[in-house]
Design goal:
about 270 residues; D-Maltodextrin-Binding Protein, domain 2; 4-stranded mixed beta sheet; 2 domains; single chain
Length: about 270
């Protein structure tokens, strides 16, 4: 384009100049349109999540292994991810109502009304945590009698879900947010509860951050449960949701055949089986 500008100065008739400029701009318009079309092809996936390190983190350099995995899954596809952080119960509601397309990253029992792809993004294991000086250890339902236990609202503790429903007075429910673990540690220190139950990786991660790893210990764990990128069930969105889920399963299946996930987990100092 710059090479053609001197040509314009040779024409004394201003109408000719205008005509040439218009023609030159016309030559660039297909290129501009092509760039615009490429941008327009990208479709947002609106994802709600919680601050749940090391799965989902607020650190842009280390956004969490689930976030990194999902970004890798949708890399070089027609989709771009738009992730927003909310309290857990609100995030579930947003996806259930269609305000968001997907949720990171529930076990099926935590949001049973959502749509789940075939493949999971990892696993979570709920464990009981107590003060180091405590002699109590989880050993089945009978070992819970008489205890006060902290628990996050709308979370699943797998085989003990029915026990929680039948014995709600034993559990101190609290909405999950970024201060949940710290607040439950404080309650243990003040003897306001005997134990709290939450995901193992997240709690150990936070204990290390708070320098409380020598004060609080694991006092027994429950079974592992797969966690997913779950999608909204709203009928009007099912056309695009089914396509998103298909891309998700296809891309994740391919990644599972590589070393990517093992290396990703190792970068967060976590077991390579997620």
């Amino acid at each position: 384009m710059l090479m053609e500008l001197p040509i314009l100065t040779k024409h004394k008739n201003p109408k000719i100049k205008i005509t040439i400029i218009v023609l030159l701009l016309g030559l660039t318009s297909p290129l501009l349109a092509q760039k615009t079309d490429k941008t327009a092809l990208k479709e947002d996936i609106h994802i709600d999540a919680i601050d749940w390190c090391p799965q989902v983190c607020l650190d842009s350099n280390h956004p969490g292994y689930v976030v990194e995995l999902v970004k890798k899954i949708f890399e070089n596809t027609q989709y771009q991810l738009n992730i927003h952080i909310f309290p857990w119960s609100r995030a579930i509601q947003n996806v259930s109502s269609g305000k968001a397309d997907a949720l990171l990253s529930p076990a099926k029992s935590e949001a049973p009304n959502l749509l789940y792809p075939e493949l999971s993004v990892g696993y979570q294991q709920m464990c009981f945590f107590t003060l180091y000086k405590s002699n109590w250890h989880y050993d089945g339902v009978s070992s819970l009698k008489g205890l006060q236990i902290g628990i996050a609202t709308d979370t699943s503790i797998e085989e003990l879900n029915n026990y929680v429903k039948s014995n709600p007075w034993q559990f101190q429910f609290q909405p999950y947010h970024e201060r949940f673990i710290a607040q439950n540690i404080a309650k243990l220190e003040k003897n306001r509860m005997d134990s709290f139950v939450f995901t193992k990786n997240s709690t150990l991660f936070t204990l290390d951050e708070l320098d409380k790893q020598n004060l609080i210990k694991v006092a027994g764990c429950l079974s592992k449960a797969p966690i997913y990128m779950a999608f909204t069930p709203v009928a009007s969105k099912q056309g695009k949701i089914s396509k998103m889920m298909s891309v998700y399963d296809s891309k994740l299946s391919a990644l599972n055949k590589t070393q990517y996930i093992k290396k990703l987990m190792a970068s967060y100092h976590l077991p390579t089986n997620r």
